[in-house]
Design brief:
The protein is an all-alpha fold. The chain has eight helices and no strands.
Length: 162
């Protein structure tokens, strides 16, 4: 079965959404982790909630063990510290993923941005830039943003009720 048919079957069956499993390239994994860390650190605070969200997202999307996830998060943190810009990671992701996978990445980034419960101006700017550089349509990014915001608003209501 071709990759496209497998993805369509997964989508119609209601599976957990587009994954980046077609991106088995370790460079794509590192570039993804680096961008997630960049999004988390952009507001000047990189807390436990953001790091935990990054770990969960990477483990889910790439099907990683706890040890492999921790190693990937550490590699992403190191890559983010060493990076002078985002273009190396963007280039890796554009070459190693298809549009559906890049849209899934945008949704992952929105998840990290909202992990601390707030959207900061720098984070909103990063999301616009990354979506454009990855050739993700504004509409797809906006829909991902809405889905994530609704999920986080629902979590806030649940936590208030406790």
């Amino acid at each position: 079965m071709t990759d496209s048919f497998r993805r369509l079957r997964q989508w119609f069956s209601g599976a957990s959404g587009p994954s980046l499993d077609g991106a088995a390239d370790p460079a794509v994994h590192r570039a993804t982790a680096m961008l997630l860390v960049e999004a988390a650190r952009l507001d000047g605070v990189y807390g436990a909630a953001e790091r935990a969200r990054i770990s969960a997202l990477l483990a889910e999307r790439f099907g990683l063990s706890a040890a492999a996830t921790e190693a990937l998060v550490c590699a992403g943190e190191k890559a983010q510290e060493d990076a002078v810009d985002l273009f190396g990671s963007i280039r890796t992701l554009k070459a190693g993923t298809n549009n559906t996978e890049r849209e899934a990445l945008i949704e992952m980034l929105w998840e990290v941005v909202y992990a601390d419960g707030q959207l900061h101006d720098f984070e909103a700017n990063l999301m616009r830039r990354v979506a454009g550089l990855l050739s993700v349509e504004d509409r797809a990014s906006a829909l991902a943003h809405q889905r994530v915001r609704r999920r986080h608003e629902g979590r806030g209501s649940e936590e208030e009720g406790k």
